[in-house]
Design a protein that fits this description.
Order of helices and strands: EHEHEHHHEH
CATH architecture: 3-Layer(aba) Sandwich
Number of strands: 4
Strand order of the largest sheet: 2-1-3-4
Oligomer: single chain
CATH superfamily: P-loop containing nucleotide triphosphate hydrolases
Structural class: alpha/beta
Radius of gyration: 14 Å
Shape: globular
Amino acid sequence: MPLIGIVGPCSAGKSVLARQLRALGYAVREIRQEHSVTPTMWKRITNPDVLIYLDVRMDVAARREGLDAPSSWWVEEREFRLAHARQHCDFYLDTSELTPQEISVQVVDFLHSWEQAQ
């Protein structure tokens, strides 16, 4: 069973996806890279076989967090702290317009394709 890492900015859906994948029997680590200033922290703390990057637009992240405006650190988090993980991910998904179920379906479809290619 491959180790799946999930990374991305706050409110992109990492926790929900991690729970859904675990329920399906996957070995999953939700990587809280967004809080680290070390660009390669995702690799240092998890070194997953598969890295999934969930993204979200700033306005959607604020809405999901119940805020009128995004957090002041949101741009730094996404553009700098997560840039290395985004560049090296195996699967990128913008979750801004997707439901948790739609996110799960797309990720599971990718994982099935990835597993078949191995």
